[in-house]
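Per reviewer request, we include the raw input and output of the structure prediction for the construct analysed in the revised manuscript.
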Amino acid sequence: MAGITDMETANHYLRDVYRPAYNMEFAQPSQEEGSAFVTFLGGHLNDILCEQTERTVGKDNCVRFEGLTLQIPSDRHRCHYVKAKVRVHRYQDGTLAVFHGPRQLASYDAQGAYKAPEIKAVA
């Protein structure tokens, strides 16, 4: 209808004709001044904004994930996690972590190699 035959003309039409007409018809003024955005207080965004996959721990206390074998190290909470349901988190940088409930059991690099936890000095 508008005689558009190429991408440049289509983008020009959207920017200069369609969007202003759409906004004139449907835009509503804000009822209050200021921003509607609030500070996030709910924890670590990296653990929310990542790929999460549920797995069952095998008899060897390992989790299989996309061809990788992720060994869960022993900890003070349980002697093993055999048959336990765990979550594998894959972060944007490719690193991995295994969680049992809210507790992180281990972290790994993108190739599945275990990364020892960082020891933070207390001042």
